[in-house]
Amino acid sequence: MARGARSRTDVAMPCRGERTLRVRAGVSMVLAAALVVGCSGGDARDASATSSTGSENSGDALPVPAADACELVTRDDAAAIMGVPAQVDEDSAGGRSDTNCHYVNVPPADTSEGQVLRQLQVQIYSGARYFDATGVVFPLDERESLDIGDEAFVHVSDTIAGVNVQVLVGDTVYLFSYSETAILAEEQADAGAKQDALVALVGERLGAVG
Question: Which residue of 2, 52, 108, 147 has the fewest C-beta atoms within 10 A of its own C-beta?
Fold first, then answer.
């Protein structure tokens, strides 16, 4: 199928677990449904399904990234981005990705006054077709190109989508998604404030072109 005719199911996108989606009481159901289109599939944490890093095609200028999402970005990395302790959400779906790692913040002991749900998901896909080159999921006029890997961009939204960094290295696509959702809390959720930190982390792990 030609790139211009691709559907959402052919493009890498955040695929968070059902339990996480249910807790977002104020989120538009239409938007939530759009984000989980194409998220069916087996458990992406299965080690037998981890992807190739694409290092053979990307040249000596790029480091060799970890093939497992939870090794590429660790729990400590996630906690540094969130600013609070993080844990792996074992209920998360990986969709069509080969390996998926979904971190959420550790809930505070007292949630009577609400909380902010922070999420960082890392997905690795085998196949350049999963790179959103034509803006099927992340509109071209709403994103900024990055000098990471062979091709990359960052997309920031004030909706459930949050901050998304997508990178193409050889024949491998990496998607890093960060979001914050206020749940009955006075504290304001602001995923966009983490853009620089997320982009810096991705650049460190996947390397800049040059």
Answer: 2
CA separation for the pair 99, 95 (Å, rounded): 9
Cβ proximity of 17 and 91 under 8 Å:
yes
Cα dihedral sign, 145-40-74-103: positive
* pTM, rounded to two decimals: 0.73
Count of structural domains, the chain: 1
Per DSSP, 119 falls in state: E
Could you list the residue range(s) of the whole structural domain that residue 82 is in? Answer: 3-206
The per-residue pLDDT for range 141-193, each reduced to its tens digit, is 999 999 999 999 999 987 666 999 999 999 999 999 999 988 887 766 687 88
Write the CB contacts of 74 (distance below 8 Å, at least 6 apart in sequence): none
Kindly state the tokens that stand for 50: 């981890």
Higher pLDDT, 136 or 15: 136
Instruction: Please say whether the beta carbons of 93 and 15 come within 8 A.
Output: yes
